[in-house]
């Protein structure tokens, strides 16, 4: 006679996630994305605005060289160089004189997201003892938008 051993099987372990757990994970990811996305967009706009900031360098150098070589009185009209606004994000670069100070104005092209055409970058150069001290002018549009 053969005996049939009836073994009791252990109940199967339930594996996986419940619906509530999955919903909690989705909610947490949604909250993190809502916080991170605006921060990333601000970071990306500031990174693209670096082209505008860099475009001021050749104009600033030209003013510095003119003042050192000729004195501030002889540098009333410095022409803009070709290729200064060659970067995609740069619309124009101009040098002007405001009373005794030099202004280098760089206007963005407005083609990048987060950067408007009125987010201009204006450097004010004050001549002191034969050299030019540069600072961001209060009329810069990039100050209000936090790009510079």
From TrEMBL:
<comment type="similarity">
    <text>Belongs to the N-Me-Phe pilin family.</text>
</comment>
<keyword id="KW-0812">Transmembrane</keyword>
<keyword id="KW-1133">Transmembrane helix</keyword>
<feature type="transmembrane region" description="Helical">
    <location>
        <begin position="12"/>
        <end position="37"/>
    </location>
</feature>
<dbReference type="InterPro" id="IPR012902">
    <property type="entry name" value="N_methyl_site"/>
</dbReference>
<dbReference type="Pfam" id="PF07963">
    <property type="entry name" value="N_methyl"/>
</dbReference>
<dbReference type="InterPro" id="IPR045584">
    <property type="entry name" value="Pilin-like"/>
</dbReference>
<keyword id="KW-0472">Membrane</keyword>
<dbReference type="GO" id="GO:0044096">
    <property type="term" value="C:type IV pilus"/>
</dbReference>
<keyword id="KW-0488">Methylation</keyword>
<protein>
    <submittedName>
        <fullName>Prepilin-type cleavage/methylation</fullName>
    </submittedName>
</protein>
<dbReference type="GO" id="GO:0043107">
    <property type="term" value="P:type IV pilus-dependent motility"/>
</dbReference>
């Amino acid at each position: 006679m053969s005996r049939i051993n009836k073994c009791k099987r252990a109940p199967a372990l339930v594996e996986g996630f419940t619906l509530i757990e999955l919903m909690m994970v989705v909610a947490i990811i949604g909250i993190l994305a809502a916080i991170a996305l605006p921060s990333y967009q601000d970071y990306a706009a500031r990174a693209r605005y670096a082209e505008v900031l860099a475009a001021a360098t050749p104009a600033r150098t030209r003013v510095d060289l003119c003042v050192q070589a000729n004195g501030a009185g002889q540098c009333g009209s410095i022409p803009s160089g070709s290729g200064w606004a060659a970067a995609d994000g740069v619309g124009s670069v101009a040098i002007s004189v405001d009373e005794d100070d030099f202004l280098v104005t760089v206007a963005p092209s407005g083609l990048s997201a987060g950067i408007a055409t009125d987010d201009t970058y204006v450097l004010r150069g004050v001549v002191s003892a034969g050299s030019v001290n540069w600072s961001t002018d209060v009329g810069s549009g990039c100050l209000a938008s936090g790009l510079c």
